[in-house]
Design brief:
With 360 residues, this protein is of the alpha/beta class. The chain has 14 helices and eight strands. It has two domains: 255 residues, TIM Barrel, CATH 3.20.20; 92 residues, Up-down Bundle (Chorismate Mutase Domain, subunit A), CATH 1.20.59.10. Bound molecules: phosphoenolpyruvate and manganese (II) ion. Phosphoenolpyruvate binds next to helix 5.
Length: 360
Amino acid sequence: MENSKEMRTWLDDMGLDHPLVIAGPCSAETEEQVLRIAHELKDTDVNYYRAGIWKPRTRPGNFEGVGALGLKWLQKVKAETGLKTATEVANRAHVELALEHDVDLLWVGARSTVSPFIMQELADALEGTDKIVLVKNPVNPDLALWLGGIERLHTAGIKKLGAIHRGFSTYEKTKYRNIPEWQLAIEFQNKFPDLPLISDPSHITGNRDMIFDVSQTALDLNFDGLMIETHFDPDNAWSDAAQQVTPAKLVQIMRDLKIRKETDSEAEYNAKLSNLRAQIDILDNQLIEAMGKRMKVSDGIGELKKQKNVAVLQSNRWNQILGAMILEGESKGLSEEFILKMFKAIHQESINHQEKIVNG
Ligand code: PEP
Ligand code: MN
């Protein structure tokens, strides 16, 4: 699959003066709920109304979606509000039902993108469709798997394609529900700069208070749109309650976001600069995160030293680290002077931590 301007024709043809917005509840719950949210989103920037009909739940026994019945509600949404509709499909039967009910945009969920078997089944079922198909990143941070899913659809003659960045699972608990691993999204964009890329801050954060910041970072990185879960009563949603926002909050988010356009050379300069700055901000946050982790490990060593009653400072170990890091730094173009200063500061912080522990 080659990058080409044609990839974004479907989006450019919409002639939007703002990023593409896909919003609506995580799950369709009742006809009243689906219609009420749609009416509240009707005169906003929202272009596509989303609602999950079949819900991929990690553990069985939770609400697994209303099923095909909900597709009738989406048809009503279109008739009553004029909003185009979107839902997730995960097998051939879903595709056939969604197409029968004239859903306008289908997306492939993160748990489906991981499986080449499912992706191929979907590509075969969708062959030649003129509907928009968006592929979420797989749950694991594997760029090839994500691209492979899109390639299978492309090979099946689907022209209106795009990708959704929804973050990645980790064993470790972080402030995100699914860590963004922005560098992977940036790499994806570098490979296919013309393929529309949508951010899903709802599933990245898992927390409605962080949605604005993640959305802004995505726009600073030149993402083309946002998918944001929206519900009139988020706390009582049947799935993903913590991450949904009200329609009013969504309008507020869209108003507050800085949307940068590349119209003239100055705007282009600003867009490039903010893209680079966004990358720096991401790396700085990773540095802080890594330092926090390093000090936690260091605290563990402090505990051990306390039990064994040994001294905090152990110079030979320190000299070893320093020597190795100077060499490592050199290979990355970092001066010896900088490495020395940086590691002295880190070492000092580490000693402070351990002394606090050893001396109670
Ligand atoms: C969803 O969009 O509701 C969903 C299930 O997302 P994901 O596939 O990203 O988990
Ligand atoms: Mn959800």
